[in-house]
Amino acid sequence: MFMKPMLMTEREKPFDDERYLFEPIIDGHRLQLSFVANKTKLYTRHFYDVTRQYPELHNVPLKEPADIVLDGEVAYVNPDTGAIEFDTLLERYKMKKDARIRDGKALYPVIYFVFDILHYNGADVRQQPLLERKKLLNDILEDNAYYKKMLFVEGEGTVLFDLVKRSELEGIACKRKDSLYFEGRSDSWLKVVNAEYADLRMSPVRKGVKAAERTVTQPV
C-alpha cells in the first residue's frame, strides 16, 4: 500500500507560533513504510521499492499487532561521531547484491525517523489533525535501534533552528498542529533551510553526490 506523500513549502526565516510544531530535518531520503498482513514494504517518495535495501527495517517494533502505513526519513547516523552521513546512506541505497546488502546492514545500519502515520488497521487517518496522528503514532510504535519517532517542539521554531544550526543539520520542518495530510506541496507544512548546511551540500564533493541523488534516490 502506497500513499502519495505530503511535501513542504520553503520559507526563508524561522518563527515562533503556538499553532505549529517544529521538527529537525534529517539528511536522508523520504521513506514510506507499509506493514500490512505481517508484510513490510518500503518505498521512496517516488514509489520506488527499496524493501531489499534496508532489511534492518523489516521488523516493525509495534506495541501490539496492527496494519499501518508510516511516513518518515531514513538516514545513517555515524555511531562514533553522531554525524548524519548522507553519502553513506547513498551507498546503502545503491547496493543490489544480497551479500553487499547483508554487509551494509552489519556495517552501516540505518535509522528510520518516523514523523507521521497515514493508515491504521484499515482506516485512513490522513484526515485526522496532525497532533492526533502524532498521539496515535506514539501509542503504537516503540523506539529501538532502527526506529525512532521524530522529536518535535511546540511553538518555538527559533530555538530549534538555533540548535539545528549549532548541530550542523539541514533545517527545520514547521507543521500546523491541525494540518491534515494531503498529497503534494502544502502551505500547512513549511521548511526553513540552514543556509550554512545548504552551502556545504553544494561544495564540489557534494555536487557529485547531489547529481546521483537526483537520478538514483530522488529524496525530499
From TrEMBL:
InterPro entries named among the record's database cross-references: ATP-dep_DNA_ligase, DNA_ligase_ATP-dep_cent
One Gene Ontology term of the biological-process aspect is: DNA recombination
Q: Where is the ATP-dependent DNA ligase family profile domain?
A: 112-192
Q: Which UniProt keywords apply?
A: Ligase
Q: Name one GO molecular function term.
A: ATP binding
Q: Which PANTHER family match?
A: DNA LIGASE 1, DNA LIGASE 1/3 FAMILY MEMBER
Q: Which protein family is it in?
A: Belongs to the ATP-dependent DNA ligase family.
* UniProt-recorded name of the protein: DNA ligase-1
Organism classification: Bacteria, Bacillati, Bacillota, Bacilli, Bacillales
